[in-house]
Amino acid sequence: MVWWLWGRAGGYGFLYRHQRGFNYQQNCNLVNVKLKWVKDRVLDAVIAGERDLRAVCTIVSIISSDPRRCLPVYHLTRCRGQLGLPHDLRLSTFVRRYPTIFYEFQVPDSGGTLVPWFSLTPEALNLHQEELNIVQQYQKDLLDRLCKLLMLTKERTLPLQTIDQLKWDMGLPHDYEHSLIPQHPELFLLSRLPDDRVGLKLLLWDDRLAISELQKNDAFQQKEDVKSGCLAFPIRFTRGFGLKRKCMQWLDEWQRLPYTSPYSDACHLDPRTDISEKRIVGVFHEFLHLTIQKKTERKNVSNLRKPLALPQKFTKVFERHPGIFYISKKSDTQTIVLREAYDRHQLIQKHPLVGIRDRYSNMMQKGFLDRSKGLYKRSADAGLEDGALQNVFIDEFSDKSYKSEGESEGILFSEYESDDSEA
Predict the structure, then answer these.
(1) Tell me: the pLDDT tens digits for 217-252?
(2) Which residues make Cβ contacts (< 8 Å) with residue 238, sequence separation at least 6?
(3) DSSP per-residue letters across 3-71
(4) Which fold would CATH assign to domain 47-128+358-416?
(5) pTM, rounded to two decimals
């Protein structure tokens, strides 16, 4: 159920029409209101398993990007920083949990030691190809999302490192820097930032994109508030959430404050006012709408303070507005969820890529359960029965004086040992 809090602040509309700008903003001081955090089990269920799903999809992209469509375990270990897995979890243990997605075989190194390699199962390969087809089909949509993200920033620029942290949430290809950006030199420019990082700059401003999701949905607003520019956010609270009368009155009046587009310059706003806070809420309301699942980790948001020209402690808006945002504390992190985007645990508008992720999740669950039942017992010579595949790798690496990373960097081969007993 969505609540639209309009309040009885009729004077605000009158004041806005007759006293626009700086004077009005100065009269709306930031009210010190604290709303309690209440656990939402339904939205927590949306977050549960997200970390493992993201890691699996990332590994699938890494393996499929290799010309041989398979990689040794130590190569995957080099990419561990992209996976977000717990430090005490061995990567080989994690990959072996999902035999419906990853197929393991072993190749001897130059010393004769068997090194685990991983490829994708036929089912995973087919699903990944479907994913690539959807990315191609919806490329314009993904481009628009990336353009709008850059349009939210003050300099129309973001470090690639920041975009890398957001690419999963926005549905961008794993290799977007190479597969997407170079195809559109009229839109994007890679440049060196003052801190020596590489940044992505938007070259073309599109007024068609500079309309926020809240502005698009003005049909749900009251006509008088649309005319005055006082747009209200959809509000949902966790079942059982008790809102005191004082907080209800404040929220009522806050909703009737003027809405500032996240795509417009807001440097004239005093950060100590409620109207400035409403602009910050609007920025992240729009930002979460740019993500395909309407959620992101809080640490990703924290990195956007300077690019978005926001004040210190701007993330406090998530605590102050639990009817708009939900902070999930599942999976050892904090995830910001846009409440209005969900009908219980289901996305109201589901992007096709979300459907692909759901199918990966189902495959993971099936593989994990089957493996726990002993249906995927791995023998000591797993994969070596495929003589043709083994010979290909032996021939290739014998020509290149192949050595495993264990030999070249002294990594203990205990990493390669079977861990079937681990879950």
Answers:
(1) 865 666 555 555 788 999 888 776 777 777 888 888
(2) 38, 39, 40, 322, 326
(3) B---TT-HHHHHHHHHS-SHHHHHTSBPP---------HHHHHHHTTHHHHHHHHHHHHHHHHSTTSEE
(4) Arc Repressor Mutant, subunit A (1.10.10)
(5) 0.82
